[in-house]
Write a sequence for this structure.
């Protein structure tokens, strides 16, 4: 069965950095784009970043562009989210997800584009 397990969250001061990891299993990782989403208390889950199945293209929400970097290591079946210059408004539970479309190149911004989700990892940024 498909599993996604996030790690690397924690408490950090504003301006600090964290690197999230998401280990995947149960599906041919290298054939699918991967996304990162986040959900703050009382808010809807929102798109943060995505990386194409080839790793050659990356996509970011405007709110994190220039501060976050998404990458993947297909040999390790792992996708990463390097977060820098963190702000209190980045506080949320961060989830990784598998794109539902194999070998797809296009848009990755919608929750409906993804079919498997991790349980999430908490990121808290203090001011």
């Amino acid at each position: 069965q498909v599993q996604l397990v996030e790690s690397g969250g924690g408490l950090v001061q504003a301006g600090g950095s964290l690197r999230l990891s998401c280990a995947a299993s149960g599906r041919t990782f290298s054939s699918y784009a991967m996304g990162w989403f986040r959900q703050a208390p009382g808010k809807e889950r929102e798109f943060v970043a995505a990386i194409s199945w080839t790793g050659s293209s990356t996509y970011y929400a405007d709110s994190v562009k220039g501060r976050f970097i998404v990458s993947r290591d297909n040999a390790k079946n792992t996708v990463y989210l390097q977060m820098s210059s963190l702000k209190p408004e980045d506080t949320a539970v961060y989830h990784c997800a598998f794109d539902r479309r194999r070998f797809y190149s296009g848009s990755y911004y919608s929750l409906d584009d993804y079919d498997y989700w991790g349980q999430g990892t908490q990121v808290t940024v203090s001011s």
Remarks:
- The longest strand covers residues 92-102.
